[in-house]
Amino acid sequence: MMKKSVLAGTLATLASFATWVAVGHEKQPLLDAMQAMVEGDNAVEAKFGRDDSTINGPDFDQTSNEWRMVIERGESTNLHRYLVSINESSGEVCVRELPAADCVARGDASIALQGARDKLQRLADAALNPPPDLQGVMKAVLRHQLDSSGYLVSNRMPLYVAIRDPKGDGMIDLSLESIRVLGGIGFPLMPGSAWQAPSEDIRVGTTMMMGLGTPTRRPDGDYDVTFGFWCGGTCGSQHGAILRHDASGWHVVSSMMNSIS
C-alpha cells in the first residue's frame, strides 16, 4: 500500500496530465507516473507482502524505455530499499533490493501497457471527433465533486480549473461564463491558466489546481474522464469518472478516487 506521500513533481504531472499527449519530438511513456508507481508497488507487494511504502520518483528514461523508482519500506533502523524498473518495450518489471544488482522479483506490466495503448487510440479518436461542450464536462464534474461524498466537500479553497484540449494544444480554461453559472459554491473558482504552483517545499498550499483529461468515448457511448487535484507536495488526488452526454447536457454516471496524498 503506497503511503500518502509522493514527490511534488509527480503530483504536478498528475494534475496537468501532460504525459497523456506526445509533445514535440521526445519519446513519451505509455504509462503515466501514477500507473508506473502502482505497477512498481504491486511487484514489491507480490514478493514481500502488503506494507506502507514511500516512493521516490518515478522517472522515465527515454534511452532504455524504462520507468525507474526507489520504493522504501520499514523504519530507519530496519529500512528496505528496492529499485524497481518497468520496461515499456517488454512489459517486464524488475525489483532489485539495494544494494544488490540482480532482480529478486519480477512482474508483468503488459496489461497496463495495453490499456495505455488503447487510451492513446481513444485520445487520437477524440482529436478527430472532439467530445461536445467541454465547459459542460467541467461543470458536471465540479458539481459532482461538491455533493455529499465529493472531494471538494472537505477540501474547500480557491480552485483553478482547466481541461485537456482534445487536439493536444495544452489546456482549456474553465470560462468566466461557466464560473458565473457555478457561482455560490462557497469558494472562489478561477481559470486554470491563472494558477501559480506552490514551491516544492510547500506540503499543503492555500490554492488548488483541478486538471481534467480529454473525455474519451467508451464502446457503450459514455465517456471516461480522468481528473486530479493538486495543492502541494502532500496534497493531491487522482480520480476517474464515467460521464454521459444527452440532449440536456453532461451527467456524471459514476466517479472513483484512485489515489490520494
Layout of helices and strands:
Blueprint: H1 8-16, H2 33-48, E1 54-61, E2 66-73, E3 80-87, E4 92-97, E5 105-108, H3 110-128, H4 134-145, E6 159-164, E7 171-173, H5 176-181, E8 189-191, E9 208-212, E10 216-217, E11 223-232, E12 235-246, E13 249-260
Parallel strand pairs: 6-8, 6-9
Antiparallel strand pairs: 1-2, 2-3, 3-4, 4-5, 6-7, 9-11, 10-11, 11-12, 12-13
Polypeptide structure, described:
With 261 residues, the protein is α+β, with helices and mostly antiparallel strands. Helix content is 24%, strand content 33%. Strands 6, 7, 8, 9, 10, 11, 12 and 13 form an eight-stranded mixed beta sheet that branches. The chain has a five-stranded antiparallel beta sheet with strand order 1-2-3-4-5, with helices on one face.
Given as residue ranges, the uncertain stretches (5+ residues, pLDDT < 50) are 3-25
Task: Tell me the structural class.
Answer: alpha+beta
Can you give the mean pLDDT? Answer: 87
What is the overall number of helices? 5
Shape designation: globular
The beta-strand count equals: 13
Distance between the termini: 12 Å
User: Helicity, in percent?
Assistant: 10-25%
| H/E topology pattern | HHEEEEEHHEEHEEEEEE
- Strand share of the residues? 25-35%
* Sheet of most strands: 8 strands, mixed
Rg is: 19 Å
Brief characterization of the structure:
With 261 residues, this protein is of the alpha+beta class.
Please describe the structure with a list of short key phrases separated by commas or semicolons:
single chain, 261 residues, alpha+beta, 5-stranded antiparallel sheet, 13 strands
